[in-house]
Amino acid sequence: MVRSTIIVRASDALPLAASVDDEQTEQALQEHKQQAKLIFRRISSNSEPRCSIESGQYTLHYLLSDNVVYLAIADKSYPRKLAFSYLDELSKEFLMSYGSKVESVRKPYAFVGFDTFMSKTARLYSDMRTANAAGSSNLDKLNGELQDVTRIMTKNMEELLWRGDSLDRMSHLSTSLRSESEKYRKAARQINIQAMIRQYAPFGAVALIIVILLWWRFS
């Protein structure tokens, strides 16, 4: 079943709405909610629009649409078709209700009232048999896109962490290379200036001597 849901703005990971979880669920999913924050930081406009990330006994499914990320933490055994059908329902309702306001909000959880719709929809999908019946029309609509489940990108948290570490190291390396390149350009300019001085210094010295002689002769 779907255990928790978080909605954030993709461009800056600002939380827009989230399900109100009880204390037991909050404690059980504490680590996975931290992982969700990592996912939000990793997502960019070039990220996969639909992705399932396996982490222990849970799977984190996210849907990226119109600069909004909808993420559900569900049991690992919960079917991905149902998870993405659930997220698709959320995205349509959220876009219709708040789509024009997403870019302008500044405070977190500005759309906390969306929890009512999330809770109601999550209950429909809480039992697989109920979800199959209630979500059949949505599954039919999504059939062309989701009938081949393997087309949904699947990763695991270790892979994401490794990729993040690699990206961080690549970013550090890129910064170092830019710094070294700037140092090289400065050194190259100094060498060119010194070369010009060595090349034209004799002519300058001769010209200076001639000027001095002429001044002395006619003064």
Overview of the structural elements:
The N and C termini lie far apart (104 Å). Strand 3 (50-55) and strand 4 (58-65) form a beta hairpin. Residues 142-151 and 164-174 have low confidence and may be disordered. The protein is an alpha+beta fold and 219 residues long. It has helices at 23-28, 30-42, 80-98, 115-124, 128-134, 136-141, 143-146, 157-218, and strands at 2-9, 15-18, 50-55, 58-65, 68-75, 153-156. The protein has a six-stranded mixed sheet with strand order 2-1-5-4-3-6, with helices on both faces.
Short summary:
About 60% of the residues lie in helices and about 15% in strands. The protein has helices at about 25-30, 30-40, 80-100, 115-125, 130-135, 135-140, 145, 155-219, and strands at about 1-10, 15-20, 50-55, 60-65, 70-75, 155.
Outline the fold blueprint.
Elements: E1 2-9, E2 15-18, H1 23-28, H2 30-42, E3 50-55, E4 58-65, E5 68-75, H3 80-98, H4 115-124, H5 128-134, H6 136-141, H7 143-146, E6 153-156, H8 157-218
Parallel strand pairs: 3-6
Antiparallel strand pairs: 1-2, 1-5, 3-4, 4-5
Largest sheet: 6 strands, mixed
Integer-rounded radius of gyration: 31 Å
Strand content: 15-25%
- Fraction of residues in helix: 55-70%
Task: Supply database-style keywords.
219 residues; alpha+beta; 6-stranded mixed sheet; 58% helix; Longin-like domain-containing protein
